[in-house]
Amino acid sequence: MSDDFEMIATDEARALGESLLLAAGYSEDHARTITDCVVRAQMDECHSHGLYRLISCLDLIERGKVDPAATPVVEDRAPAIVRVDARRGVSLAAFEAGLPVLTEKARQSGIAALAINNCFHFSALWPEVERIADEGLVAIAVTVSHAWVAPAGGSRPVFGTNPFSFGWPRPGKHPFVFDFATSAIARGDIELHRRMKLPLPEGTAIDADGEPTTDPDKAVEGAMLTFGGHKGSALSAMIELLAGPLIGDFTSAESIAFDDGAKVVPFHGELIIALDPASFLGQAASDNLKRGEALFEAVEGQGARLPAARRYRARARSEKAGAMPVRRNVLDELRVRAATLEIKTR
Amino acid sequence: MSDDFEMIATDEARALGESLLLAAGYSEDHARTITDCVVRAQMDECHSHGLYRLISCLDLIERGKVDPAATPVVEDRAPAIVRVDARRGVSLAAFEAGLPVLTEKARQSGIAALAINNCFHFSALWPEVERIADEGLVAIAVTVSHAWVAPAGGSRPVFGTNPFSFGWPRPGKHPFVFDFATSAIARGDIELHRRMKLPLPEGTAIDADGEPTTDPDKAVEGAMLTFGGHKGSALSAMIELLAGPLIGDFTSAESIAFDDGAKVVPFHGELIIALDPASFLGQAASDNLKRGEALFEAVEGQGARLPAARRYRARARSEKAGAMPVRRNVLDELRVRAATLEIKTR
Questions:
Q1: pLDDT at A180 over 50
Q2: Do the chains contact at B154 and A246, CB–CB below 8 Å?
Q3: Measured in Å, how far apart are chain B's first and last C-alpha atoms?
Q4: What is the pLDDT of residues A24-44, one digit of tens each?
Q5: Are residues B230 and B253 in the same domain?
Q6: Any residues with CB less than 8 A from the CB of B252 and at least 6 apart, and which?
Q7: Closest Cα partner for A64 from A321, A270, A260?
Q8: DSSP secondary structure letter of residue B272
Q9: Residue B140, beta-bridge partner list
Q10: Which tens digit of pLDDT belongs to each residue from A53-74?
Q11: Same domain, A136 and A274
Q12: Residue B208 resides in a domain
């Protein structure tokens, strides 16, 4: 471990997260679900979605957009559709409220969808599809973000970084899970290159005139590109439609307009689909899951990696140690915030 | 129109297709659904899935794998799941049999899935998602193919060209539809480059040692690559799982093993998901579809193209003319086949 990192015990990380969020004004449900999500990401050494995100959750309150005590409202819309209105809270409490309804509907109907509306969203999607796959169900999850990404052949931002996530149950093993942005580069990476004055990778951005650029400042004035050319662009458009108009929520363009310079995390909706293998196949489902295992063996047997393998290895290390590595500057910042909040809340 | 093409009247194309397929031994349902699919593709000037495909449907019978008179069996598996066993027939008759059940289930439950099993599959997926979108529903369709494509970081074929297709209803307009292979290049394009002794585009294939190659012969000995690196590879794995083990059907590796050198079209399953906007939103659905229109305007307003725009323009030309352009060598071949079959069936 490099000097840039410090080990923090899992219990201490949870206590720090919850006390910070509670002191800042989040409700117990929000504090618990946000902390659980960022601690799990940190245990997986997914630093971009780990404890670092607590800082933006604290900033979110200060910028006055979020309702930190919002209670999500669950609405049973149809035999296989549940909507949860997050009421301007963070998405995670809404997901917790909707999850049992989604899994029950998926088992009863064979397939079901959970739409989360009016939520602030900062987290990766893999924790959600992993939770659903842990229930023996197959899961797909999509959200929009802020309009930063140009469509293929275009020059101006329309799409968000629009992640696509998938989970598949593997009996006795961690699920097969992937979660990727449909943008060619993460938004955070653009900012990082900008601060470090480093050129962007080729093919990730265009300038305000629509010309390819590797200059991160010009990329911010212009637009990011999707991965995979017109195919990635088509997927990104699909995600706008599924997580936006289909469920009555913002597109990425509407999310950034709502933000209106506040620079908080995107405010929008999320669509999650769950499928029940047993409904398709009955008792044959478990035999057919072995076909999936044969596929994974064919991938790993030639030295290729399954998407979440690195995270799962990190998780095993963290579980064994009862502690996880966190960037020292993130912990320092969180401790400063804790000190400030203790003063405020005394 | 170049000399390589000949115009054929829509009625004549339909009559030619149906009579050829009937004479070859296909049932009326198969002859009608196959002809309808290839004529529609040809009207859209989608030559790779147009009348040309009649030839492979005729070859399919000669190679003894398909049951050209198979009657699909519809099974109501769960409130939101319908399966259709194609019984070794071509997928299209099975889709026709399952479509009304799928759309009814989607309207009742809000989301529903159609699994087609044990089908030979040669067609694009856009005709299917377009049909569903024409019913006012949102559609996703996926199938595997033959194992020709290596996973990211691998060197041996595991995945098929595994198409992903999406349809979105646009009131008063053709639906927003895309349909792309998750391989970096179409299988047919590899064959074309091989015959013409032309190098492949960079980044589309590897040789038997896993090294990048632009030599189509070496690509056939090695593997094709997915589009978009590890992200396209993840999507391709997802499609294997959804259209294979989830619905109790072949993966691409199992499909090519079943083929066993017969070189017919892949034999496998297909998963189609339909979502009903009205179930999510009730009367607000139509207002929310306008958010989708704003997205399309933002794409087209900057000179970028929507995925199916070229096909829709070709369709308008074909509908106006009552005729469509077909490659002369395809029509010649079909006429030779017709002459041969007339002799056989006399």
A1: yes
A2: no
A3: 37
A4: 999 999 999 999 999 999 999
A5: yes
A6: B144, B145, B146, B147, B148, B149, B158, B159, B160, B162, B240, B244, B266, B268
A7: A260
A8: E
A9: B166, B273
A10: 999 999 999 888 899 999 999 9
A11: yes
A12: no
Q: Are residues A330 and A271 in the same domain?
A: no
**CB contact at 8 A, A84 and B54:** no
Same-domain pairing of B169 and B247:
yes
Residues of chain B with pLDDT under 50: 345-346
Residue pair A93/A73 in contact (Cβ under 8 Å)? The answer is no
Query: Which residues 275-334 of B are in CB contact (within 8 Å) with A?
Result: 275-277, 279-281, 284-285, 288-292, 294-295, 298-299, 302-305, 307
* Alpha helical stretches, state H, chain A: 10-24, 28-43, 52-62, 91-109, 126-134, 187-195, 216-221, 229-243, 252-259, 277-281, 284-300, 309-321, 328-345
Q: Are residues A144 and A42 in the same domain?
A: no
Q: Which two tokens stand for residue A222?
A: 């212009």
Contact A152, A183 (CB under 8 A): no
Within a domain: A197: no
> What is the residue range of A273's domain?
72-183+226-307
- Spatial contact of A257 and A239, defined as CB atoms under 8 Å apart: no
Does ipTM come in above 0.90?
yes
Report CA torsion sign: A84, A282, B273, B240: positive
pTM over 0.95: yes
Chain A residues within 8 A of B78 when measuring between CB atoms: 108-110, 276, 279-280
Give CA–CA dist A241/B293, Å, rounded.
10
Residues B299 and B316 occupy one common structural domain: no
Question: Mutate which of A77, A81, A107 to test chain B, going by most B C-beta atoms within 10 A?
Answer: A81
A-chain residues within 8 Å CB-CB of B81?
109-111, 279-280
Domain count, chain A: 2
CA distance linking residue A49 with residue A192, whole number of Å: 15
Does one domain contain both B41 and B118? Answer: no
Backbone dihedral region for residue B56 (phi beyond 0: left; psi -120 to 50: alpha; all else: beta): alpha
Instruction: Extract the tokens encoding B43.
Output: 């009207």
Q: What is the pLDDT of residues B305-331, one digit of tens each?
A: 999 999 999 999 999 999 999 999 999
CATH classification at residue A31? 1.10.1530.10
B243 in any annotated domain:
yes
Angle of CA points A310, A311, A313, to nearest 5°: 65
B200 contacts: CB under 8 Å, gap ≥ 6: B185, B189, B190, B193, B213, B214, B215, B216, B219
Same domain membership, residue B243 and residue B162:
yes
Three-class HEC string of A94-161: HHHHHHHHHHHHHHHHCEEEEEEEEEECCCCCHHHHHHHHHCCCEEEEEECCCCCECCCCCCCCCECC
DSSP secondary structure letter of residue B173: S
pLDDT of residue B344: 57
Examine residue B189 and state whether it is found in any structural domain, yes or no: no
Contact B160, B255 (CB under 8 A): yes
- Catalytically active residues of A are 48-49, 189
CATH number of the domain bearing residue A239? 3.30.1370.60
A153 to chain B, any CB pair closer than 8 A? The answer is: yes
